[in-house]
């Protein structure tokens, strides 16, 4: 089965750990490539490669300031993750509610004895 290119799918692009680390560094705000390199102790070519993939899927935006390239996070593009995780959050909440009901019932039975 052919795998979807990481450059066309947000899920696949973020599946790579280094790209998630780059996104984490951009939460604080716009950063130059050199700053990201220093923050993550990666080589400049590695950071640039990962930034290119993240840019192609729209997770980061690049703007030029003289010779520097400044990157910033585009959090709206993470909406597919939010939508996907929301289903699991609802299922977890329902299980926790059932467990709470069960524990409350056990507590009542213990008090009756």
Write out key terms for the chains shown.
113 residues; alpha+beta; Arc Repressor Mutant, subunit A; 3-stranded antiparallel beta sheet; 12% strand; elongated
Number of helices: 5
Question: How are the strands of the largest sheet arranged?
Answer: 1-3-2
The CATH superfamily label of the largest domain reads Winged helix-like DNA-binding domain superfamily/Winged helix DNA-binding domain
**pLDDT averaged residue by residue:** 88
Topology as a string of helices (H) and strands (E): HHEHHEEH
Distance between the termini: 61 Å
Computed structural class: alpha+beta
Q: From the 3D coordinates, which CATH architecture of the largest domain would you assign?
A: Orthogonal Bundle
Any idea how many domains? 2
What best-fitting shape do the alpha-carbon axes yield?
Answer: elongated
The percent of residues in helical segments reads: 55-70%
Report Rg. Answer: 21 Å
What is the highest CATH level, the class of the largest domain?
A: Mainly Alpha
3D architecture notes:
This protein starts with 9 loop residues before the first helix and ends with a helix. By secondary structure, it is of the alpha+beta class. The longest helix is centred in the last third of the chain and has 34 residues, at 79-112. It has five helices and three strands; from the N terminus they run ααβααββα. The protein has two domains: 10-73, Winged helix-like DNA-binding domain superfamily/Winged helix DNA-binding domain (Arc Repressor Mutant, subunit A, Orthogonal Bundle), CATH 1.10.10.10; 78-112. 15% of the residues are buried. The protein has a three-stranded antiparallel sheet with strand order 1-3-2. Strand 2 and strand 3 form a beta hairpin. It has helices at residues 10-15, 17-26, 33-40, 44-56, 79-112; strands at 31-32, 60-65, 68-73.
């Amino acid at each position: 089965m052919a795998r979807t290119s990481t450059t066309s799918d947000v899920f696949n692009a973020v599946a790579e750990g280094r790209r998630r680390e780059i996104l984490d560094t951009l939460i604080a705000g716009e950063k130059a490539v050199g700053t990201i390199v220093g923050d993550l102790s990666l080589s400049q070519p590695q950071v640039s490669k990962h930034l290119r993939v993240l840019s192609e899927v729209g997770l980061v935006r690049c703007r030029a300031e003289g010779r520097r390239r400044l990157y910033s996070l585009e959090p709206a593009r993470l909406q597919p993750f939010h939508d996907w995780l929301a289903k699991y959050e609802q299922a977890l909440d329902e299980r926790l509610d059932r467990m709470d009901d069960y524990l409350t019932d056990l507590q009542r039975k213990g008090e009756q004895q």
